Amino acid sequence: MLAPLSWLKEYITITLSPEKLGERLTEVGLGTEKILHENGDTIFELEITPNRPDWLSMLGVAREIAAIENKSVKFPVLQTDLKPKKSTQLLPLKIHPNYKITPRLTGIIINNVKVGPSPKWLQDRLISIGLRPISNIVDITNFVMWELGNPIHSFDYHKIEGSEMWVKQAKGGEEYESVDEISYHLPKGAIIYEDSKKIFDLVGIKGGKNSGTYEDTKAVFIVVEVDDPVLIRKASQALALRSDASAIFERAVNKGGTIDALKRTVDLILQTAGGEIASELIDLKEQDFKPWKLSLRLDRLEFILGIKIPEKEVLTILDKLSLSPKLVKGNVIECTIPTYRNDLQIEEDLIEEVARIYGYNNFPKTMPFGQTPVVTVPYFRDYRKDELVKRLLTAANFSEIYTYSLISDQDLASVGIDSEKVLCVDNPVSKDFEYLRPTLKINLLKALANNKGIAKEINLFELGKVYMGKSLDNITETYHLAGISNTKSYIEVKGLLERLFEEHNIKKNPSDYMEVLEEGVYFEIPYSELFEMTEEPRIFQSIPKYPPVMEDISIELPSETPLGTVMKDIKEQSTLIKEVTLLDQYKNTVTFHIVYQHQEKNLTTEDIKPIREKVIASLEKSFSARIK
Amino acid sequence: MSMEEQLMNLKNEALSLILSAEDGKTLEEIKLQFLGRSGKLTLALKDIVKVPVENRAEVGKLANEVKQAVEEALERQEGFVKKETITKKRAAIDTSIPGIQPQIGHLHPMTQVMLDVVEVFKQIGFQAADGPEIETDHYNFEVLNIPKDHPARDTQMTFYLDTRNSKVTPGEVILRTQTSAMQGRVMQKVKPPVRVIVPGKNFRYEQVDASHGFEFWQVEGFCVDTHIRLTDLFGTIDYVLRRLMGQDIKLKFATTNFPFVEPGVDTYMECTVCKGKGCSFCKYAGWSEIMPAGMIHPNVLKAVGYDSQKVSGFAFAIGLSRLVTLRYHMDDLRLLTNPDLRILKQF
């Protein structure tokens, strides 16, 4: 909201500079986003939190400044006593209230008004907060709303057919044209005013074209009401229609402020548009909306804040906020909460009041004392393990990326996944971000493509969540670890994963998680499943005391013999064979390097001979190998 | 020539040869010439048996001294010659040529900052937890004192999951809008004392710009014990942010309203890019909102089964994405999800 300094000064003397005032306002909760200097005035752009409808008015802001500056607010003088003169002919209006949806309806009828442009001072006020002047009556209702914080609406009395009206909820689908000539279909449950023939107001949100105040209006029915915040919010959301009034109503309007707002409006109308009061004061309500009591224990205040603020200072702060504090029985302060402070309901709310005016930046800083929790927290996650995994991948020249979880239908199609089987959001920001990724592949492929032309060697990985489940009844949300490389060979990537698995004691074959794609070598590992199991402690193996014996064997194999199987077969021939590596490969001839080692003695040629023979026999038998 | 004279002559001869030697090979030859199996000194030493018995001890002592002197001289000269060789070798290298770096990948800046955050909190007794991103309205809002149709929901526009073919009531399952959703999940399962942080991704229905994304990262944290005070919250925020962003950063606190805290606190950090002067990154405010927080609302404590008269606590959320961009002076949040190697290689 915009609050011009000149307007605020009508209610309060301000001594702080605009910059200092802005800082203080932000500290106490009235977020000052910008301070603008325009046309010789200073305008504060304020961000109003949902708990403070009262701040959506100049008087509300002035009250806060009063607390900061330790001054009092000058409330506008209200002259009219809202009683019709005895000689005036009264205009009838029968109202059927509905307290469940509109707990209070305050109003009055003024006859013989002259609708026309408003005086310059009034127009200037509205222009200064970004509103467009319309006519004296409408401008006054807007002005008083922004001054006092209660929305006000003026109806053309003669357009209420049959002089009878009902407060109702819309059935849903009814047509409605607002005062600014936009047609709506009303959502079910919206609060409406209806006369014998038509709906003439979308209450609390926007007035109707068929009941508004125009040049030819002679009598006005001025209404200040209290509406149910949830109903206003629902209707305003359903219509995507927000108004200054709905913003106040959905935060819960000041239930005790309707009479004052009406008086102020009537005063200004009589002054600027003439006319005379033509009805008794209407104030339909089931209960009195009176201030309530709220207690604050001084020891509780100290307990929560961590500092002792002297009793006298606490009383001063609460008094400055117009909360009428009284010290009762020792160390309990009883406050009387004005009806515009609907946010003050529990003791903690009062604790915040004291703390914020005392100034958060005046507090000392301490660290929590007491016991450090030793029990492993539910949902514990070992980020150190993630780090070890990621560090190993970076050591192999893979760089880490973070990508979006939300992807498109087309993305899924690009890797051949049917979007019908993928979780999706009802209200995506766009078609590009509609589905929850069931794989990290799509984003890694895109990332690889994005880097073409930027780098020759592209190795990327991501540790991120994937979301599985055909419907919400069977969701699994787990971490996957995926990577892609456009230059490393399959065997290199496999080796990297072998090392990764070894370090984390995972007994799996990396090839099960690898794919060869047109773009390069890709892997995607179910990380949560494989890595989040408890690791067995590592057991140290003593260094062999006796030297190994090494030899190379060259054999010819039928083409397409899987060499890994061959090597496994060699190794299985004796426990003394510690290592078999592929040394060389040319056409169908391969050379293996074999390491023999005994833990307790030196191996001799005689020891190895039978093993070699066994190896060769097995290779000939199982793989039709020919020894070279 | 007496044995003594012979030994002294051999010593002088050897030393002069050693001192004039300029490379290791010459020294090897000299060593062989004097100390080898049939070296001059070796042979002379064998002749000691010929010395009369009464002189033998004295001559033997001298012989040992000579041998030792020659060995020491050889060793010294070897070291000297080696040094010379290295100097020559080094002189042959063009050290101005840039080094060949090992090919090592890069950890994402988000990971680096997240690990720092986890570490700093670990030091003050906070454990890290991780929770679901597909969350229920119950944990994301209701437990946190944000009933349906509360205006506070406006600031957290929500993605709702498609409930077709499931038993789930529409609107009940969402993508979490805040890691605070984990407050209820954790606290329902464990009694105080509790000190937990929850790093994670959140989702909000927002139009994307330089400082907003519909997916962003936060670190939630909360601490509940028999006596946790507002000053503890201020102290913890101050400690953590100074450890993460440098001890000279400027911080200020302001009142704010979140339904799940009372009193509510917002933390602003002076913009690291412009040092408070105002720039496009801090929207010309000079300050960045970095860590909303507050004392946990009694309704939340009640909802998780705690007695708000017996325990108190604080909660906070660090805007992790924002922290990363502030630390590295990145002017656009979208850089964090851009997998461009020219960005990644800087970290």
| Portion in beta strands of chain B | 15-25%
Q: Which whole number gives the mean pLDDT of chain B?
A: 92
* Total domains of chain A: 5
Most residues in contact, chain pair and counts:
A-B, 98 and 97 residues
Structural class of chain B: alpha+beta
The SS-based structural class of chain A is alpha+beta
Secondary structure elements and their pairing?
The complex is a heterodimer of chains A (628) and B (347).
Chain A: E1 2-4, H1 5-8, H2 18-28, E2 31-38, E3 41-47, H3 58-69, E4 94-96, E5 104-111, H4 120-128, H5 136-148, E6 152-156, E7 164-169, E8 175-177, E9 183-185, E10 191-194, E11 199-202, E12 206-207, E13 220-226, H6 229-238, H7 244-250, H8 258-273, E14 276-277, E15 282-285, E16 292-297, H9 298-305, H10 311-320, E17 326-328, E18 332-337, H11 347-358, H12 383-395, E19 399-400, E20 406-407, H13 409-414, E21 435-436, H14 441-451, E22 459-468, E23 476-485, H15 490-503, E24 514-517, E25 520-525, H16 527-531, E26 549-556, H17 563-572, E27 577-586, E28 589-596, H18 605-623, E29 626-627
Parallel strand pairs in A: 4-7, 19-22
Antiparallel strand pairs in A: 1-3, 2-3, 5-13, 5-14, 5-15, 6-13, 7-10, 8-9, 10-11, 11-12, 16-18, 17-18, 20-21, 22-23, 23-25, 24-25, 26-28, 26-29, 27-28
Helix pairs in contact in A: 4-5, 5-8, 6-7
Chain B: H1 3-20, H2 24-35, H3 40-46, H4 53-91, H5 109-123, E1 127-128, E2 134-136, H6 137-142, E3 173-175, H7 181-187, E4 194-203, E5 215-225, H8 230-245, E6 251-255, E7 261-270, E8 287-289, E9 293-296, H9 298-303, E10 312-319, H10 320-327, H11 341-344
Parallel strand pairs in B: 1-4
Antiparallel strand pairs in B: 2-3, 4-5, 5-10, 6-7, 7-8, 7-9, 9-10
Quick structural gist:
With 628 residues, chain A is α+β, with helices and mostly antiparallel strands. In chain A, the strands form 8 sheets. Chain A has a 5-stranded mixed sheet with strand order 4-7-10-11-12.
Quickly list its features.
heterodimer; A: 628 residues; alpha+beta; Phenylalanyl-tRNA Synthetase, Chain B, domain 1; Phenylalanyl-tRNA Synthetase, Chain B, domain 3; 5 domains; five-stranded mixed beta sheet; five-stranded antiparallel beta sheet; 18 helices; 24% strand; B: 347 residues; BirA Bifunctional Protein, domain 2; 2 domains; eight-stranded mixed beta sheet; two-stranded antiparallel ribbon; 11 helices; 10 strands; 40% helix; 17% strand
